[in-house]
From TrEMBL, chains A, B:
FAD-binding PCMH-type domain mapped to chain residues: 37-216
The organism's place on the tree of life at top rank: Bacteria
Cofactor requirement: FAD
Protein name: FAD-linked oxidase C-terminal domain-containing protein
Protein keywords: FAD, Flavoprotein, Oxidoreductase
Length: 459, 459
């Protein structure tokens, strides 16, 4: 696709040379994301200020050009693929930490700030921002907000919706606004802040966020628990979450995931039917009691071994192996289907059992790991597209996974969002009225349907 | 007002005798709330099931009759006063606790369940639901959700928006829907759950809520800190909230509030320039360390005395005196204006200083107390309507309070909501685009404007 003369002129009037491109050779790289889907944008722009975004949306609306907001494209759902062409707005240069206010436990950031960079800036003040996707060194706060992306710590500290106080944004109408508060309580009108979080850039472009900060715990300890079977590990998850001490991470790896992790992490990763990584945090003089409570719950039928990481280096090695799983799976199965379904914690054992049965029935290997403390399991269907039988079975296999999840009282996505790849399944998860209300809300923010068309809501 | 024949017929077709009334002598009592505003409804209904609410909204829409959802009317903003007549829907008989699911840390309740009844039912399971308005023994979960009502514990555990997983509701169109999840993570479409919470019944009637539960702490300790001046107490609030251990309540009482509390609580309440009630919770073997950390921060210039309640009875007496403040103020000043403004915690000293100046300038006594840990101060303007000068000064005095709050980065309401009495001030707190988006969202849920007309959004 090529930018029209009108679009070229409009962009030249808003952005300095070097802050936008209509050259297909340059824009190509902004046409795909971690979903491996791809489409060609007409242009990519690199705003450095809120007012440029306002001017851009106004111009695009006048010209009828789609607008796709983009952080660093680490999402797995195709949420930033410009399937209808138009302008990709890369926020990579709008990356200032505007303010860190420890007294009020908040930080104000532009959307392009990297999650990891924010954490590094907050640490000297004794705070952190709880959402920590596996991609935190190279994903942006704007992307985290767009997808309500969480990570391991959400089990104790919540996702972006629980950790964001307010936003500045530009709606698809071109109108800009502020919503939310600089306070931790507020009852002044409808909650537009949470409405924008998780909306995947379909309602408005976020240009600034006021984030709620949490004090860094003084100490942390990582436990590694291995079990003879996946079921015994899943039952331990239920026991841990039914007692009062909440771990700050409760990760699950099945036998296949363990084999992959061992390839990355070496001997720190044991051979077993399944493993839990359980992290507790707290103040140094109280941590031992918390660890004891969690350890008691982790013990039970099928436990092989429960050991604490001896030092930070061993804990880091365990975490590195866990975090390497997603890219490792990609390398062995380029066409993996990676879902992040979520079920009530007590149903995790049934989910895991059901997934094994679905895998066997469709002859497609399924590897499972993820944030078990939230019931949020990353389900990876590994199929070889060159295997005609597997390729034919994959869609039914995926549909069976979603049917199982919904039957267990769960939902399609815990933290990845819907994007391009899951939107046709949305009517299975939401009733017709909810879906209609979402469409009508969308039309108020973006009457011309220019913001991230083809995403989240089905046609 | 009188119900039309059409409305009478419709109600008789939906509700059993005794489950609705059109008799003005009976409906009168459903025409006012704790705001002391009053209006006459045409009818009051007492649904016992979701389907009755669906049928009711359909009938009212057909007849063009307003609908006002009501818990127990403990709100102070006139949110449940039927200013346009119509049907008051009292949820007092729709009060079943449908399910308590400790393994998944959730409870499913009908809207008429009393907050205190829910807490009592949860305690044997080792859980509680954090929102705890002062009126908890006689306010409903539905009302808490409608107003995003919080209470003292919100400083550590959040308000309803942070403690609700999902809802069932009936929109003003008559369509019913479910939104949210039975899981603690979810990224499947727009967040309708948080949109309904705090919407004061203007978007939909909530007929069921899935609430997120928190484990009851094993121990709790209450500290009473007195200070020579209001400023020194306000500075202590800032210090407490800037260190990592979060109290589960951090309440502030100024000198006038203390005098009133002493009248209720007797010698347990000291004479001082100001007092903080600071509660810490945690596990029994770790609580002492938390209390020490908080106590260190509470100490500083102006501290008179810092003492822990000796036992549960003494703690209860202190809390009872704090909780008696709002009704006590009403008895001495029937026309008090009670606001629940909120500012960033570090600005509380400036807020308190500014309020003293405003009080002096307008010659209207102002008594302040409230949830200082969230910056949420209950500001009570005590004026005598028979004093012509005071009555004339009251509106300007109130406007000056709001201007001060907004200048300090705060907002109009932390937990009471907007209702009838604050809606004309909303355009001071929200920008025009936000307000327009809220109106457009309202029109999607309630195109005929039948749900709680005259509330929250200004005309």
């Amino acid at each position: 696709m090529n930018a029209s003369a009108g679009l070229r002129d409009a962009l030249a009037g808003i952005f300095a040379a070097g802050a936008y491109s209509v050259d297909p050779a340059e824009t190509l790289v902004y046409g795909y994301d971690n979903s491996r889907r791809q489409a060609a944008p007409d242009a990519v722009v690199f705003p450095t200020a809120h007012d440029e975004v306002v001017a851009l949306v106004a111009a695009c609306r006048r010209l009828g050009v789609p607008i796709v907001a983009r952080g660093r494209g680490t999402n797995t759902t195709g949420a930033t693929v410009p399937v209808a062409g138009g302008v990709v707005v890369s926020f990579e240069r709008m990356n200032r930490i505007v303010e860190i206010d420890p007294a009020n436990r908040l930080a104000v950031v532009e959307p392009g700030v990297l999650n990891g960079a924010l954490q590094a800036a907050l640490a000297p003040h004794g705070f952190f921002w709880p959402p920590d996707p596996t991609s935190s060194p190279y994903c942006t706060i704007g992307g985290n907000l767009a997808c309500n992306s969480a990570g391991p710590r959400a089990v104790k500290y919540g996702a972006p919706r629980e950790n964001t106080l307010g936003l500045r944004a530009v709606a698809g109408t071109g109108e800009d606004f502020r919503c939310g508060y600089r306070t931790t309580k507020g009852a002044t009108g409808y909650d537009l802040t949470r409405l924008l979080i998780g909306a995947e850039g379909t309602l408005a472009l976020i240009t600034e966020a006021t984030l709620k900060l949490t004090p860094l715990p003084g100490a942390r300890r990582l436990l590694r628990a291995t079990y003879t079977t996946i079921q015994s590990a899943a039952l331990a998850v239920s026991r841990i979450m039914a007692q009062p001490v909440v771990p700050c991470a409760l990760e699950f790896l099945d036998d296949e995931a363990l084999r992959l992790a061992r390839a990355h992490g070496g001997d720190a990763i044991p051979v077993a039917g399944a493993m839990l990584l359980i992290e507790a945090d707290g103040e140094p003089d109280t941590l031992a009691a918390s660890v004891d409570a969690i350890a008691r719950a982790a013990r039970g039928e099928g436990l092989i071994e429960l050991v604490a990481a001896n030092d930070a280096a061993e804990a880091d090695a365990l975490w590195a192996a866990r975090k390497a799983l997603s890219p490792a799976l990609r390398s062995i199965a380029p066409m993996k289907i990676n879902e992040d379904v979520v079920v009530p914690v007590s149903r995790v054992p049934e989910l895991i059992g059901g997934l094994k049965a679905i895998s066997a029935r469709h002859a497609i290997p399924i590897v499972n790991f993820g944030h078990a403390g939230n019931g949020n399991i990353h389900v990876n269907l590994l199929y070889r597209p060159e295997d005609a039988a597997q390729a034919a079975a994959a869609p039914d296999c995926l549909a069976a996974v979603f049917d199982l999840v919904l039957a267990l009282g769960g939902t399609l996505s815990g933290e990845h969002g819907i994007g391009l790849v899951k939107r046709e399944f949305l009517p299975r998860a939401l009733d017709a009225t909810s879906l209609a209300l979402m469409r009508r809300i969308k039309a108020q923010f973006d009457p011309d349907g220019l913001l991230n068309p083809g995403k989240l809501l089905p046609d």
